[in-house]
Design brief:
With 171 residues, the chain is mainly α. It has a single domain, classed as Butyryl-CoA Dehydrogenase, subunit A, domain 3, CATH 1.20.140.10. The chain is built from seven helices and no strands. α1 packs antiparallel against α2, α4 packs antiparallel against α6 and α4 crosses α7.
Amino acid sequence: MHCSARSAAACLWRNVLVHENRIRQAASSLGAAVYCINESVRYARERKPFGRALAENQAIQWPLVELATQAEMLRLLIRKTAWEMDQLTQAEVEHGLSDKVSMCNFWSNRLCCETADRAMQVHGGMGYSRHKPFEHIYRHHRRYRITEGSEEIQKRKVAGFLFGYMGAGKH
C-alpha cells in the first residue's frame, strides 16, 4: 500500500502498530518455542525405553541443542530490537529498524514451528495427540508465518535494508 502525502501520518501510525504487533508476536512465538524445548528435554530425561534415558542419545540431544542455541540468539535479538524501538520515534523505527522487526518476526515464527515439530517427535505418539500441547502450538504459530506479513514479505523487507533500496541505507 502506497501512502499519499495527505495520508502519510496515517500510514506511519499504521506501520507503528504493525511493528509493535510483530515484535510482540515474535516474543510470543519465542516463548512457545522455549516451552517446547524445555518440555522435550524434561521428557527425554524421564523416558527410559530399554532401561536408558532418551536424553543419552545424541540423536535426541543434538537437534534440541541446535534449537536451544537458535532460541537464545533470537531472544537477544528480540530484546535488543524491542529496546531500540522504545528509544526511537515512530518515523525512526520505520526508517531504521523495520528490518530487525521483520527478522525477529519471521525467524521466531519459523523456530516455534520447528520446536513444536521436534517436541512431537521426541514425545512420540503422545506428542502428536491432544494430550500434549505441541500439535496445537504448531497449528497456532504456523498461521503467524502467513498473517502479519508472510515470511516472504518479512524477507523482502530485510533484503530491502540489506541491499540498500529501503530504510536508512537507501541509495
